[in-house]
């Protein structure tokens, strides 16, 4: 016996599997197919009716298809209200002869019937469908009720009967029995149509899809026996196609054969034909009647671009885009509750391309739909720029989101050069118009400009951006990582940039942009805390030039985390080797951009490190009123070191702490922990980082710790605000300076000769912290 290789077996088996799965196809869209399947699972019949299953158990079916027939019968029972007074179910298996498996009065609950169907054993034999129908004519429905109860016969077979079925099938139907013919395996559809009740399109089904067949069966019964009470459901007709496999013979060729003749012992050579048998798929066009129920998603309940996902016939849930999900229908969960005048400045140049411009329009619409409620206090406008600048939507022009969306839809791509600097000049001068709220009251809301660009500017932006910021405009930049540096230059603070990694990521940034816009009313962290901060950087040979440059980058990026001006944060920078060098003092710079440029000029010293000389220098010559330190303001020193030269640093560090200055020690690499702890004063003020490459990862942690210190209570007399050996005397909520030979709020002016009086008579001025700060700034101290 020759065995076929595995590859040959696959050639024969795979097409059969595909055909078995595709014996019936309803021509409808995928959404409708899903609705048919969902409705089939929810069908229910609670009428008074007798149902008898007639299962084909012949060899042409085989054990596998017989098990599928049983599964189908069990699925149909799920939709039946099996009860002695309502639905009764029985079963007959047929092959060479019919066999009663169980009568209609044998089992009185659904669970019992389904368990009995599972235990039904395959019998095998020839396919005598006609003989099984004659059995029904003779025996009726065993255990059934009288003729007033409707009778339903469900034949599950491949339709390949070895005897005639036409006459007994007609006689069964003439007795008032409704006959359903359900195909299994590769059905012979013509015979199934011949035995089924009229109209046959409604009474011929396929068991391969149990939910679809259940739908078809109950759709046929809905008008007469099992009424469908589910609201929104109706029976519809669909074109469908049924298929089967049939055997065909075709001439394959001829071969030499020998034939006898009338003459004895004489043979003649001749050509004899030989045939090849093949199985072909045959199509049977028809119509299928199915119940379709309204989908809970048909009414499109999910708003703002949400996707509706049905859960049965009456429930659903919404998959909401970013910025939505505040309710079950994707209502906005963000809101611009902050009152601002908001102008979007959209790049419409050739640099962003038409695709990028349309993406920004879609983002702008999605953002405004997400955050703009009916009572939003924000006023919104839109400007476009390329080589020219125009404001098609004035700030506050639209009071409703619908009108705003229509105006945004009308924006057109223009192309041209990318003159971002020119656009910033223009919107700073003409982008916002002060409008009266009442007759004599002007609308004085904070003004915010959101720049949307993905193209580098062809003209300078720094001076224009500074001009806009000096006019109290909050600038926020939105763009890809390609323009990250330019956006930081425009905004003056990387924290005011929103950078996306890819086009889809842009839409994920909606919540971040909302927070940035509303931060104008409620700045976070150190932005609302007054702070005097000194960075002391180890620039010795022990650190090395490459690592020093990483320390300098860290100081530069950290400085962007603070708002630099005389009222909020002041930063000084000290580089040290064997001696300390002040790069700039606390009161040198009053904005972030200038300060960052100065950090870039910090020199590498390259000699032996001495942290003690750096801390002594900060105590005596940096963190002082003369060099810009402010009374009543939190003071922090951040020492960046590799741990070298720390031997004598504990004493000057303690002196700083005694004077109200917090000392953070940030050490990179291996170092003696006990020595470092003595300098920091507490483990809370010691940050150990394994390598210079990891330094940037600790930036947020270090900034957070500095900000926590900025919120701590301060002693108004530490460090001593009184100059020229004046004595600071603390009062509740204030202080005053007792001067000897000097006068002024901080003992800053020498008493002229001849006017020297007793110390108690010379001065004794009481100052609050605010007055002291004012006077300090006014006198240049």
UniProtKB/TrEMBL annotation:
<protein>
    <recommendedName>
        <fullName>von Willebrand factor A domain-containing protein 2</fullName>
    </recommendedName>
</protein>
<dbReference type="Pfam" id="PF00008">
    <property type="entry name" value="EGF"/>
</dbReference>
<feature type="domain" description="VWFA">
    <location>
        <begin position="341"/>
        <end position="517"/>
    </location>
</feature>
<dbReference type="GO" id="GO:0042802">
    <property type="term" value="F:identical protein binding"/>
</dbReference>
<keyword id="KW-0732">Signal</keyword>
<dbReference type="InterPro" id="IPR002035">
    <property type="entry name" value="VWF_A"/>
</dbReference>
<dbReference type="GO" id="GO:0005615">
    <property type="term" value="C:extracellular space"/>
</dbReference>
<feature type="domain" description="VWFA">
    <location>
        <begin position="50"/>
        <end position="221"/>
    </location>
</feature>
<comment type="subunit">
    <text>Forms monomers and multimers.</text>
</comment>
<keyword id="KW-1015">Disulfide bond</keyword>
<feature type="domain" description="VWFA">
    <location>
        <begin position="532"/>
        <end position="706"/>
    </location>
</feature>
<dbReference type="GO" id="GO:0005509">
    <property type="term" value="F:calcium ion binding"/>
</dbReference>
<feature type="domain" description="EGF-like">
    <location>
        <begin position="294"/>
        <end position="331"/>
    </location>
</feature>
<dbReference type="InterPro" id="IPR000742">
    <property type="entry name" value="EGF"/>
</dbReference>
<dbReference type="InterPro" id="IPR036465">
    <property type="entry name" value="vWFA_dom_sf"/>
</dbReference>
<feature type="signal peptide">
    <location>
        <begin position="1"/>
        <end position="28"/>
    </location>
</feature>
<dbReference type="InterPro" id="IPR050525">
    <property type="entry name" value="ECM_Assembly_Org"/>
</dbReference>
<dbReference type="Pfam" id="PF00092">
    <property type="entry name" value="VWA"/>
</dbReference>
<keyword id="KW-0245">EGF-like domain</keyword>
<dbReference type="InterPro" id="IPR001881">
    <property type="entry name" value="EGF-like_Ca-bd_dom"/>
</dbReference>
<feature type="domain" description="EGF-like">
    <location>
        <begin position="713"/>
        <end position="748"/>
    </location>
</feature>
<keyword id="KW-0964">Secreted</keyword>
<keyword id="KW-0677">Repeat</keyword>
């Amino acid at each position: 016996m020759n065995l076929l290789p595995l590859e040959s077996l696959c050639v024969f088996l795979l097409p059969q599997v595909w055909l078995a799965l595709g014996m019936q196809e309803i021509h409808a869209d995928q959404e409708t197919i899903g609705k048919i399947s969902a409705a089939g699972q929810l069908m229910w019949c609670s009428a008074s009716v007798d149902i008898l299953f007639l299962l084909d158990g012949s060899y042409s079916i085989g054990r596998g298809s017989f098990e599928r027939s049983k599964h189908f019968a069990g699925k149909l029972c799920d939709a039946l209200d099996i009860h002695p007074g309502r639905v009764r179910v029985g079963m007959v298996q047929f092959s060479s002869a019919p066999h009663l498996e169980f009568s209609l009065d044998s089992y009185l609950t659904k669970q019992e019937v389904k368990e009995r169907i599972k235990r039904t054993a395959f019998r095998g034999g020839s396919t005598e469908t006609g003989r099984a129908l004659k059995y029904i004519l003779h025996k009726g429905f065993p255990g059934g009720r009288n003729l007033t109860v409707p009778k339903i016969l469900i034949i599950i077979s491949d339709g390949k009967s070895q005897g005639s079925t036409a006459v007994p099938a007609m006689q069964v139907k003439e007795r008032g029995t409704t006959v359903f013919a359900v195909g299994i395996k590769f059905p012979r559809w013509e015979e199934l149509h011949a035995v089924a009740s009229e109209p046959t399109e409604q009474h011929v089904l396929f068991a391969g899809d149990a939910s679809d067949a259940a739908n078809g069966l109950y759709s046929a019964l809905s008008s007469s026996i099992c009424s469908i009470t589910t609201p929104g459901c109706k029976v519809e007709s669909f074109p469908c196609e049924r298929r089967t496999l049939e055997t065909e013979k075709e001439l394959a060729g001829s071969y030499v054969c020998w034939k006898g003749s009338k003459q004895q012992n004489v043979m003649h050579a001749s050509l004899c034909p030989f045939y090849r048998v093949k199985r072909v798929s045959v199509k049977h066009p028809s119509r299928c009647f199915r119940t379709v129920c309204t989908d809970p998603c048909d009414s499109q309940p999910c708003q703002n671009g949400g996707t509706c996902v049905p859960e049965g016939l009456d429930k659903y849930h919404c998959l909401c885009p970013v910025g939505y999900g505040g309710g079950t229908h994707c209502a906005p969960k963000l809101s611009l509750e902050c009152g601002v005048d908001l102008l979007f400045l959209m790049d419409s140049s050739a640099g962003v391309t038409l695709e990028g411009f349309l993406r920004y329009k879609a983002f702008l619409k999605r953002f405004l739909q997400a955050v703009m409620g009916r009572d939003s206090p924000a006023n919104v406008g839109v400007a476009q720029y390329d080589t020219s600048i125009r404001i098609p939507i004035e700030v506050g022009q639209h009071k409703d989101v619908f009108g705003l969306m229509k105006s945004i839809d009308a924006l057109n791509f223009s192309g041209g050069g990318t003159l971002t600097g020119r656009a910033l000049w223009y919107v700073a001068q003409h982008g916002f118009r002060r409008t009266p709220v009442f007759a004599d009251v002007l609308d004085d809301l904070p003004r915010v400009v959101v720049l949307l660009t993905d193209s580098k500017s062809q003209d300078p932006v720094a001076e224009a951006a500074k001009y806009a910021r000096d006019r109290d405009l909050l600038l926020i930049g939105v763009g890809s990582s390609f323009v990250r540096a330019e956006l930081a230059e425009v905004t003056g603070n990387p924290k005011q940039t929103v950078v996306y990694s890819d086009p889809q990521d842009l839409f994920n940034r909606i919540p971040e942009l909302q927070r940035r816009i509303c931060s104008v009313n409620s700045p976070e962290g150190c932005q609302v805390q007054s702070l005097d901060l000194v960075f002391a950087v180890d620039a010795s040979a022990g650190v090395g030039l490459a690592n020093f440059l990483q320390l300098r980058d860290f100081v530069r990026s950290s400085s962007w985390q603070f708002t630099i001006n005389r009222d909020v944060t002041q930063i000084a920078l000290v580089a040290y080797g064997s001696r300390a060098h002040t790069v700039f003092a606390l009161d040198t710079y009053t904005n972030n951009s200038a300060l960052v440029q100065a950090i870039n000029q910090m020199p590498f010293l390259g000699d032996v490190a001495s942290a003690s000389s750096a801390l002594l220098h900060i105590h005596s010559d940096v963190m002082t009123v003369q060099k810009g330190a402010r009374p009543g303001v939190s003071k922090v020193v951040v020492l960046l070191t590799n741990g070298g030269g720390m031997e004598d640093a504990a004493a000057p560090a303690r002196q700083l702490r005694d004077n109200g200055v917090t000392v953070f020690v940030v050490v990179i690499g291996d170092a003696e922990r006990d020595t470092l702890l003595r300098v920091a004063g507490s483990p809370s003020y010691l940050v150990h980082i394994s390598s210079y490459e990891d330094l940037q990862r600790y930036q947020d942690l270090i900034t957070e710790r500095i900000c926590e210190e900025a919120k701590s209570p301060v002693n108004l007399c530490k460090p001593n605000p009184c100059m020229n050996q004046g004595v600071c005397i603390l009062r509740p909520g204030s202080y005053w300076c007792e001067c000897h030979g000097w006068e002024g709020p901080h003992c800053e002016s020498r008493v002229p000769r001849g006017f020297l009086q007793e110390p108690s008579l010379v001065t004794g001025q009481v100052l609050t912290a605010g007055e002291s700060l004012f006077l300090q700034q006014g006198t240049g101290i």
